Structures are given as C-alpha cells and as structure tokens.
Amino acid sequence: DAKTTQPNSMESNEEEPVHLPCNHSTISGTDYIHWYRQLPSQGPEYVIHGLTSNVNNRMASLAIAEDRKSSTLILHRATLRDAAVYYCILRNAYSGAGSYQLTFGKGTKLSVIP
Amino acid sequence: DTAVSQTPKYLVTQMGNDKSIKCEQNLGHDTMYWYKQDSKKFLKIMFSYNNKELIINETVPNRFSPKSPDKAHLNLHINSLELGDSAVYFCASSQDLGYEQYFGPGTRLTVT
C-alpha cells in the first residue's frame, strides 16, 4: 500500500488559514487522496478527496501537486471546532475489494489557538 | 436524525464474557464497516459488509464476528473477551464500496 507522511502536530491561530501537508511519494496513478479528521472523543469525519485536480467543498480545499507526490489540505479560516487529528489516506480504486478499506496512519494533530 | 448510531456508548465487562455492540445507519447505504481504535489511537479496519456479504475480513481473531440482520444494521459480537480487546470500536457506513465513509460515535469497551 502506498504510504503517507504527515507532521505529528501543527498549531494555528483562530480565524487564520491552515495548510496541512501530506507527502505520498509512492502514490500510483489510480490512488485517490482522501482526508478525514477526528475531533476529540468522536468518530472520524470525511473532509474531502481528489485524484489529480484541486478540489473545493464547504469544509476545505485540497491542493494536489502536479506530480501528485504531495497534497495540502487547506482550511480557509480555522475555528476552535477545527481542532482535531487530520488523516491523509491513499485509496486505490482498482486493486480489488480490499482496496476500498481506509488505512489510517498517525495523522496530524491540529491545535487552534483562540 | 442520527446517521450512524452505536449502542452502548460505554461497555465495561470482565474477561471471558461474551458481548455485542449494535450499529444502525439510516442513510440507506449499502456498505458498513467496523473499526478498532486502540490506546495508541491507531484506527484499524476489522470488517466490512456490502449487501449483507462480508467482503473484507482483516486478520482479527475469530472471537469477533459481525452479524448483519439487514442492510441498515451491522452488529459486532465478541466471545471470550480478553484484556487486549479494550479499545474504542467504531461503526461506519458508505453508499457503496469506495465512497466516503460516515462514522458512528464509537463504543468504548473496557475489559477488566
């Protein structure tokens, strides 16, 4: 399975943008990049996913490098509620039923300072 | 209007007992999952069910068995509980294989 590398922790001031990096240098052409987050004492929550092009939704933006070896999750304006562990996950869509599982790493713990 | 619900939220039991955790989703999804999050916060897939068929079965002990009475429910039965089974168990569902997953609030199991 392709692996991802994320910083263990990051800090951000409230109401400022946050850029959460993820390296995936061994990504294959059919690997989708997924982001989930887990707020304290809650289950993980889907944030966004993409394949090649940058993606935007109501929660965040996903910027994918041209060579796809890295990506950045962008929270445009951090709030206290965004304090969570953010997971960058690769999922291959064409490797059999087992490829649909999500393999969570350690993620990045984001702290938001009021 | 809870999407994925689990019961109980907390479960404390003794070694050797048999217990069940229930999961229900009201999203009309075809696929459901069980994950285990250990004390080090690593989250690992245990099972997934698609249209009532087990399609992923990770290397979990056969003391763990998923049971799906219908598409909206995937219960987790655990026999002969051990200390190492203490963890938070999350249920999740998705529209189909490969779609984004929606997680329940988790069940914290403590085995004494």
Give a brief outline of the structure.
The complex is a heterodimer of chains A (114) and B (112). Chain A is an all-beta fold and 114 residues long.
Let me know the average pLDDT of chain B.
91
Percent of residues of chain B in helical segments? under 10%
Structural class of chain A: mainly beta
Strand content of chain A: over 45%
- Largest sheet: number of strands, sense, barrel closure of chain A: 5 strands, mixed
Order of helices and strands of chain B: EEEEEEEEEEE
Described by its quaternary structure, the protein is heterodimer
Q: Helix tally of chain A?
A: 0
* Count of strand segments of chain B: 11
Strand order of the largest sheet of chain A: 1-9-8-3-4
Number of strands of chain A: 9
Query: What's the overall average pLDDT of chain A, rounded?
Result: 91
Keywords:
heterodimer; A: 114 residues; mainly beta; five-stranded mixed β-sheet; 9 strands; 46% strand; B: 112 residues; seven-stranded mixed β-sheet
Structure explained in plain terms:
The complex is a heterodimer of chains A (114) and B (112). Chain A is mostly beta strands. The mean pLDDT of chain A is 91. Helix content of chain A is 0%, strand content 46%. In chain A, strand 6 and strand 7 form a beta hairpin. Chain A has strands spanning 9-13, 18-23, 31-38, 44-50, 55-56, 61-64, 70-75, 84-92, 108-113. In chain A, strands 1-9-8-3-4 form a five-stranded mixed β-sheet, with no helix packed on it. A four-stranded antiparallel β-sheet of chain A has the order 2-7-6-5, with no helix packed on it. Chain B has 112 residues and is mainly beta. Chain B has no helices and eleven strands. Chain B has strands at 4-7, 10-13, 19-25, 31-37, 43-50, 53-57, 64-70, 73-78, 87-94, 101-103, 107-111. In chain B, strands 2, 4, 5, 6, 9, 10 and 11 form a seven-stranded mixed β-sheet that branches. In chain B, strand 7 (64-70) and strand 8 form a beta hairpin. The chains are: A mainly beta (114), B mainly beta (112). The A-B interface holds A 34, 36, 38, 41-46, 49, 85, 91, 93, 97-98, 100-104, 106 and B 4, 31, 33, 41-45, 48, 50, 55-56, 58, 90, 92, 97-98, 100-106.
